[in-house]
Amino acid sequence: MKQINFSPHHQILRDNRFRDLVGKNAWRALPDEVRKRFGYRLRNGASVVYQGKVASMRMNMVGRLIAQITRLLGGPLPYDTSCLNQPAVVTVTEDCLGKGQFWVRQYGRAAGFPQVIRSSKRFAGPTGIEEYIGAGIGMALRVSADRAGIYFKSDHFFLQLGRRKLRLPAWLQPGALTIAHIDLGQSRFLFSLKLQSRFLGNLIQQDAVFHDIQEGRYG
User: Fold this and answer.
1) What average pLDDT does range 109-132 have in this prediction?
2) Helix (H, G, I), strand (E, B), or coil: what is residue 27?
3) What whole-number distance in Å separates Cα of residue 128 and Cα of residue 135?
4) What is the pLDDT of residue 78?
5) Mean pLDDT of the 21-50 span
6) CA distances from 194 to 97, 123, 204 (A)
7) Rounded distance, CA 116 to CA 75, Å?
8) What does DSSP say about strands 201-211 and 188-197: parallel, antiparallel, or unpaired?
9) pLDDT at 13 (0 to 100)
10) Are 147 and 30 in contact (CB under 8 A)?
């Protein structure tokens, strides 16, 4: 895994944005390592890089179709089951202008270039946090936490046109998306993505295990 030296030049700051979203009591119940990952941020263009491996990858026929269609929007969903047991990398960079975070997830494949998924989390909107996935499409998220980890669940999807946001009707939404960050101990965590439909069940589910930062301190 890539090691990062958190020098004073990176200006590590305490960050209460996720704590405020889940509430103080739920935040205190989180494992210490989860609070560290989500309770600090880097400035001056520095990034945090986590490396790991895809542990499971499942999708039904409708999930495969949705994953392929959304490739027209930049490929926000995993679409290749050959990523199983392949290397995975997540990079998180502070978006200084947008007052949010850039997330880049890279998943290896059995052949060809890795799939790269880019998104931007912004602390805005009716739920307090939104994720933009490309082509003006975004989703408002609900954030919760328990003693195991922190969870991001889609509240609704929208299309942004300039300063306007048009909420997409239910029939245009691909399903309910849940992303979980579960602490596994020993500087490891599970990153789980699940897209579900009320009528069609689990459309897509991908789990990957990552290693935590091993060098430097959070201050």
Assistant:
1) 95
2) helix
3) 21
4) 96
5) 91
6) 30, 22, 6
7) 8
8) antiparallel
9) 82
10) yes
Contact 80, 44 (CB under 8 A): no
Token pair 């202008």 is at which residue?
A: 97
Sign of CA dihedral 153, 165, 172, 59: negative
CA distances from 54 to 10, 48, 51, 89, 113 (A): 30, 19, 10, 10, 16
List the helix and strand counts (H, then E) for the chain: 4, 13
**Which of 47, 108, 104, 63 has its CA nearest to residue 83?**
108
Of 196, 199, 189, which Cα lies nearest the Cα of 52?
A: 189
Find tokens 């052949």 and name the residue. 111
Residue 163 has pLDDT above 60, yes or no: yes
* pLDDT value for 169: 93
Are the CB atoms for 189 and 33 separated by under 8 Å? yes
d(CA 72, CA 95): 24
Report residue 146 as tokens. 């328990």
Amino acid 197 reads S
More confident residue, 135 or 105: 105
What is the H or E stretch that residue 37 is in? helix 32-38
Q: Tokens for 6?
A: 């958190």
Check pLDDT > 80 for residue 9: no
Q: Which residues pair with 42 in a beta bridge?
A: none
Residue with tokens 């990952």: 37
Token pair of 49 as six digits: 């890089």
CB count within 10 Å of CB 183 equals 21
